[in-house]
Amino acid sequence: MLASLSLILLCQLAGEVITRGLGLPLPGPVLGLLLLLILLLARDRFSSIARGPLRNSGVETASKGLLKHLSLLFVPAGIGVVEKLDLLATHGLAIILILAVSVMVTLLATVLTFRLISRLFSEAP
Amino acid sequence: MKDNPFSLWVYLSQSPLLWLTVTLLVYAIADAVSLALRRHALANPVLHAVWIIGAFLFATGTPYAIYFGGAQFVHFLLGPATVALAVPLYENRKIVLASIVPMLAALVAGSVTAVFSIVLLAEAAGLPREVILSLAPKSVTAAVAMGISETLQADPSLTAVAVILTGIMGATVVTRLMNRTGITDFRARGFAAGIAAHGIGTARAFQVDEVAGVFSGIAMSLNALITSFLVPLALTVLMR
Question: Does the keyword Cell membrane apply (chain A) (predicted)?
């Protein structure tokens, strides 16, 4: 468990070091995700790195435990709303309405494009 | 302590222990209620935890900075959780590779719609420039959206609020909206949830269907990548 968490943190740390070091316009944790994915794929190719957290689904179990409570992690930032009450009093209704419209349009645009393209490709001769 | 009944409160309200406990406890209760209501969309645990804790801070006159001193331990885990998304991606790599073309097309369509729709609507509503800049990355996961907001010299804390509102709204409407469109493909439904409503949409997707959750997680990480580039571009095109 401890080794698995360390591996996850290490991936994030490497991601931060690389993105900041090279000035990439990319969040460190996203690069960390790619690094962990590469490690997992490499483990299947080369059995020599299948040790510690990369053995017996160690890092898999730890990651799933973290993702099980993903929505909890948004609570602290969300409560920042208490600092924005005066702004929300003046523009709140407009902000909430346009966010709602934008979310629905985005959901529909994404799902319809996905279905359209997937149908085009599966029906191709 | 007996001399001054407030001294205990003064001590506790300044320590991380109290606010960390409050965050976990209120969320645990909101989550249990959501489970008891069979994950009804309106029983979203994030929504209810946010207003209950917010009201408690307001009632006790606690500044957000003091609260965050305790809650930052939870907030910090957003980074490792983003890294952890590699695992469902790895475990479902076959189904992901099989649908790579529709995924990339939907990614472009979705992220462009997310950014352009909010900027255009905010301009039409006559919102101030700083508010528009802060709203632009609202479909991306909190940690990344706040980073984008910072580079635009907008208001990262307003961005965080917009991100959470977007996530809650997306998670609330996604199932009903998708049922109404008659789309039963859980890859497409999950992918849309991740593009439009980041981690809160992904948490919702995992509650509905495992494949939907995986595609939502992928959509969320790809969207974080592309939106970092798209937002500055969209703002130069749309705002002058």
Answer: yes
Q: Do B105 and A60 touch (CB under 8 A)?
A: no
Q: Which residues of B touch A83 (CB under 8 A)?
A: 64, 157
Q: Are residues A49 and A20 in the same domain?
A: yes
Q: What global pTM score does this model have? A: 0.84
From residue B240, how far is each of B117, B123, B129, B136, B216 by CA, in Å? 17, 11, 10, 15, 34
How far does the CA of residue A112 sit from the closest CA of chain B (Å)?
A: 8
B80-89: b or e for each residue (b if 16 or more CB lie within 10 Å)?
Answer: bbbbbbbbbb
User: B36 by DSSP, 3-state: which?
Assistant: helix
Interface confidence, given as ipTM, is: 0.88
Q: What is the pLDDT of residues B128-173, one digit of tens each?
A: 999 999 999 999 988 788 878 888 889 888 998 899 999 999 999 9
CA neighbours closer than 13 Å in the CB half-sphere of residue A88? 14
Regarding whether A104 and A59 lie in a shared domain, the answer is: no
